[in-house]
Design goal:
Blueprint: H1 4-53, E1 64-66, H2 87-90, E2 91-92, E3 95-96, E4 102-108, E5 111-116, E6 131-137, E7 140-149, E8 152-159, H3 160-208, H4 225-275, H5 279-309, E9 319-322, H6 323-333, E10 344-349, E11 354-357, H7 359-376, E12 382-389, E13 394-399, H8 434-444, E14 448-453, E15 460-466
Parallel strand pairs: 1-5, 10-12
Antiparallel strand pairs: 2-3, 4-5, 4-8, 6-7, 7-8, 9-11, 12-13, 13-15, 14-15
Helix pairs in contact: 1-3, 4-5, 5-8, 6-7, 7-8
Length: 471
């Protein structure tokens, strides 16, 4: 498992170390360039000084060798890139040990006339032309500046190792501070990351020690915005869990209460059938038992439907739904329930109106509304379905000729298990869940449900307003 603290610390320290290393490399090449600029300028200056002071000697059999280093303090090992033990041994009142790595040669007609004792015996030439050159003589690399004075070539050279050594020495002076900076930055980054992630650790500890039944909101002190977003999401989850548990408890209590009566009725009818003295009495008891079982079956189905609709995690598939065809199918499915003589179904308004919704749950919604109309409206009376497509909504009105609902009871009939006057039913199979299911399905589809009087009393008008179809 990846640790955020280790990931952030190692990443930041690694990036800073890489940046410092790149800076040191860049510094090395910058220092080397500046050193070369200074030393190249000095070589040119030395060559011009020699040109001014040079007096051509008589023809000599051997080149004139000038020993410039006649003081003991300046004697140093004549090896490539050699260094002394301390700065005090490199310099003194008479000069510096680096002087032994600077040399000159003078030619005329490809003949060596003079050289310094520090210069190689072999010429830096013979292919001479003015300017700077890197040459290798006796396995040593020199940086040489050639200057032409009439027919005399003056060359001043310097061992390349001096430049490398000075560049490395200057770079080494910056390595120790860089290493110290890396250590300090590592410590600071570790402390800052640990401090920044402390609220996250506090959140984890609060969740780890919390009891399962404790769904109160988390409170984390000194929580930054990034952690606060997580805490808010957790608190929202706690709230949804609390509501879900409350719904489950309410559902369990309601189901237990509502099922107690039909189960008791089933027991009574079974006992009556068992104790019947003749076949007719037993048949009557079984008939009543069948009615109770049918009603109990409907109650259980509606309880399960309501429980499924209450699940926030259920994502219903949405599709284009033709309204009139859907309502007609629901009506056809209710033919067995619709007692003879049947209600007269009439459609008005838009015949080809559509909704964007879940076909299954919308079918349950309209089936419950149509069933309510069948239960309360007189046989043979009209049942009118009006569909209107407006700019801001799609409205469906279902109007029956039943007794209607008093205004002060219209809010209560939307509650679960509330039943209106049962004496007004044409047959007693109501569960008190129909309109609660209708309201829940409407909320899922962001629709509203209103109850009103029929335009011509008596009667009830149910008005559904759905969001318009997005084009």
């Amino acid at each position: 498992m990846i640790s955020i603290q280790r990931l952030l610390t190692s990443t930041l320290v690694g990036l800073i170390t890489a940046a410092l290393a790149a800076s040191l490399v860049w510094s090395y090449y910058s220092i080397r360039h500046e050193v070369e600029e200074v030393f190249d300028a000095e070589l040119a200056q030395y060559a011009r000084l020699l040109r001014q002071s040079w007096e051509s000697p008589p023809e000599l059999a051997k080149p004139l060798v000038t020993d410039l280093f006649d003081t003991p303090e300046l004697v140093a090992p004549d090896t490539e890139n050699s260094t002394t033990d301390s700065e005090e041994n490199e310099s003194g009142p008479w000069g510096h040990a680096y002087e032994r790595k600077i040399a000159f040669q003078i030619w005329r007609d490809n003949k060596l006339l003079a050289r310094s004792s520090s210069a190689p015996e072999n010429p830096w030439g013979p292919n001479l032309h003015p300017g700077y050159h890197n040459v290798i003589v006796d396995d040593r690399e020199w940086r040489v500046f050639f200057l032409l004075n009439d027919d005399v070539w003056i060359g001043v050279g310097e061992r390349i190792g001096i430049r490398d050594e000075i560049s490395r020495e200057m770079l080494s002076q910056g390595i120790a501070p860089a290493l110290l900076a890396i250590v300090l930055v590592s410590i600071i980054v570790t402390l800052v990351v640990r401090y920044g992630l402390a609220p996250l650790s506090s959140t984890a500890e609060a969740l780890r020690t919390r009891r399962p039944e404790n769904l109160t909101p988390l409170t984390i002190q000194r929580a930054p915005s990034e952690v606060n977003v997580v805490v808010q999401a957790i608190n929202q989850l706690f709230e949804r869990l609390r509501e879900a548990i409350q719904r489950e408890r309410a559902f369990t209590a309601d189901a237990a209460h509502e099922l107690r009566t039909p189960i008791a009725a089933i027991k009574v009818h079974l006992q009556n059938a068992r104790r019947a003295h003749n076949a007719a009495d037993a048949r009557d008891s079984l008939t009543e038992l069948e009615k109770v079982v049918t009603r109990t079956e409907g109650l259980i189905e509606e309880l399960l439907t309501l429980s499924r609709l209450d699940q926030d995690s259920v994502e219903l598939p949405m599709a284009d739904v033709p309204l009139r065809a859907l309502i007609q199918n629901c009506w056809n499915d209710l033919e067995l329930v619709n007692r003879e003589p049947q209600l007269e179904l009439h459609f008005t308004g838009e015949s080809y109106a559509h909704l964007t919704g879940n076909r299954e749950t919308l079918g349950i919604l309209f089936t419950n509304l149509l069933r309510n109309a069948i239960q309360y409206a007189p046989a043979g009376s009209p049942l009118t379905i009006s569909i209107a497509v407006r700019a801001a909504s799609v409205d469906v009105e279902i109007t029956d000729r039943g007794p209607g609902i008093a205004p002060d009871l219209r809010a209560r009939v939307m509650e679960r298990f509330y039943r209106a006057d049962m004496s007004k039913l044409h047959y007693n199979d109501g569960t008190g869940l129909g309109l609660a299911i209708v309201q829940r399905i409407a909320a899922i589809h962001r629709a509203s449900v209103r109850l009103a009087d029929a335009p011509t009393p008596p009667g009830l008008r149910v008005i559904l307003s759905f969001p318009p179809v997005q084009s």
